[in-house]
């Protein structure tokens, strides 16, 4: 007698194997998985380059084709990552995933969500939270530079998000901002508190926006300076108190005095 449930079981086991394969590709460190993760990283960087160039390409006849093509690639990547996760609903609640889904929506409706399209650059921020970026550094004992790289990425994301906001909200209002480069120039001049005064934002809201840009920009610059000039630390959680970072040659935890056994960089 033929078991009618046999095809269903075969399809179920095949789907489970497919999810297991995706999980290995996205999260394991085998040579095949690392090649896959590197290719995904290259695609992500290409998408980010498109996001940065979007204001300059919007009037190009091929813009929508590129936009929808990237939307398809991003949708496939999000779906694959969801299938690779062990708990999809928990995965969906993570902030980088929510940001990626919002970015996908802006790609699917470029004409309707144009005013928020500049937030696509947040893809760079979500990418910086991915283990794909940090595994090669950790493998080579360079994870001590993680804070510096993260600080640079945070600053770049802030600059481009603010530039997009200024360009979208204030261009063409007797501000001196006639193009994207003008908005970027204003943002950098404001963040660095140079303030040449040749480009300004009008009205009370313009002044308030400038104040917020300066305060956050200075904070990010200070954070970057701290990560560059403070002593290098290694990531090694203390078994006693959980303190995450210590000096590379530390023998005892500076918080609780517990004896540490930090491996050399070549042993990571």
Description:
- By secondary structure, the chain is mainly alpha-helical.
- It folds into 3 domains: 8-117, no CATH class; 142-230, Helix Hairpins (Orthogonal Bundle), CATH 1.10.287; 231-268, no CATH class.
- Helices cover 63% and strands 1% of the residues.
- It contains 10 helices and 2 strands, in the order H-H-H-H-H-H-H-H-H-H-E-E.
- The protein has helices at 6-27, 31-57, 63-84, 88-92, 95-108, 122-128, 131-139, 146-170, 180-191, 203-229; strands at 234-235, 245-246.
- Helix 6 (122-128) packs antiparallel against helix 8 and helix 8 runs antiparallel to helix 10.
- The protein is flat.
- The protein starts with 5 loop residues before the first helix and ends in a 22-residue tail after the last strand.
- The mean pLDDT is 78.
| Outline type | flat
What spatial order of strands do you see in the largest sheet?
1-2
What oligomeric assembly is this protein in? single chain
Q: State the end-to-end distance.
A: 57 Å
The stretches of 5 or more residues where confidence is low (pLDDT under 50) are: none
Main sheet overview: 2 strands, antiparallel
Percent of residues in beta strands? under 5%
Average pLDDT, all residues = 78
